[in-house]
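Re: [ENG-882] Designed sequences occasionally contain unexpected residues at chain ends

Forwarding the minimal case from QA. Structure tokens:
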């Protein structure tokens, strides 16, 4: 790990190491790690304008077809819904970064008053027409909701894409009722799978193998420890935690990645999820 001069955007320490650098759209981005707090982050961080541009136009295109969202996310969102029913059964919910609105549609079917926020206007429009879910395309603070409006706010694979997740969690907390819940999911950059693929990528000198590192689309990468520290700073306590394993993203290198992952895939699925599952799933409760 190469040491560089920089500032950790989470704790403001200056002892920063670089784990990987890759080019994207003619610009070099690095995955940095703060040696003081352990937080991983993209350096330099993409601007708000760049982040917004990542998710416009054809982004979500495959989801905006009948059955597209269900095929890609139906099983995962079903697991999320069933898990949440262990914490609350009714109430008003908001799904931030909802894409086409499949998750709030599933929550609505389960008896919740569900709605969504989505920055991609094409996806929001399609979701409203297809699922009958209210999906706004504005920022949370411009949504018209008042303080304590929601019993549940979900952000599944969203928080790692934001400019400053700690600040966003503090903002979202204001819109939760006292004792309200958030569902937060994102990958663990130091999971067994991630560390294994990072090692293979370094041995073979092929950085694409370490698909768990998704800079610059992921402005932040987390571990269980850094996630819990952030939740605590934002005024939340962890009510539930578990892991799952989704496998590599769809890409031309899928077959190669599958073969490289064979040693991990030999583990029974429950053991794979518990020990090597990269996806972290948290239910956090507003602390008052």
């Amino acid at each position: 790990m190469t040491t560089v001069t920089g500032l950790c955007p989470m704790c403001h320490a200056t002892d920063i190491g670089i784990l990987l650098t890759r080019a994207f759209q003619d610009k070099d981005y690095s995955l940095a790690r703060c040696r003081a707090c352990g937080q991983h982050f993209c350096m330099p961080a993409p601007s708000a304008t760049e982040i917004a541009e990542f998710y416009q136009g054809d982004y979500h295109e495959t989801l905006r077809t009948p059955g597209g969202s269900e095929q890609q996310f139906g099983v995962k969102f079903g697991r999320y819904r069933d898990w949440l029913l262990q914490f609350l059964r009714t109430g008003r919910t908001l799904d931030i970064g909802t894409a086409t609105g499949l998750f709030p549609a599933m929550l609505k079917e389960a008896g919740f008053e569900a709605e969504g926020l989505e920055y991609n206007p094409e996806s929001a429009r399609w979701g409203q027409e297809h699922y009958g879910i209210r999906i706004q395309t504005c920022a949370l603070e411009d949504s018209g909701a008042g303080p304590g409006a929601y019993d549940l706010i979900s952000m599944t694979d969203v928080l790692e894409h934001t400019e400053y997740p700690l600040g966003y969690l503090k903002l979202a907390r204001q819109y939760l009722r006292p004792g309200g819940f958030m569902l937060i999911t994102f990958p663990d950059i130091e999971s067994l799978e991630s560390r294994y693929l990072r090692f293979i990528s370094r041995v073979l000198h092929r950085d694409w193998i370490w698909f768990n590192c998704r800079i610059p689309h992921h402005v932040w990468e987390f571990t269980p420890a850094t996630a819990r520290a952030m939740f605590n700073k934002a005024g939340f306590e962890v009510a539930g935690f578990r892991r799952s394993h989704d496998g590599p993203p769809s890409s031309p290198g899928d077959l190669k990645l599958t073969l490289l992952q064979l040693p991990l895939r030999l583990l029974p699925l429950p053991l794979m999820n518990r020990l090597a599952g990269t996806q972290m799933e948290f239910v956090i409760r507003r602390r008052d």
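QA comment: On inspection the terminal residues look reasonable. The first helix runs from residue 48 to 54. Proposing we downgrade this to a documentation issue.
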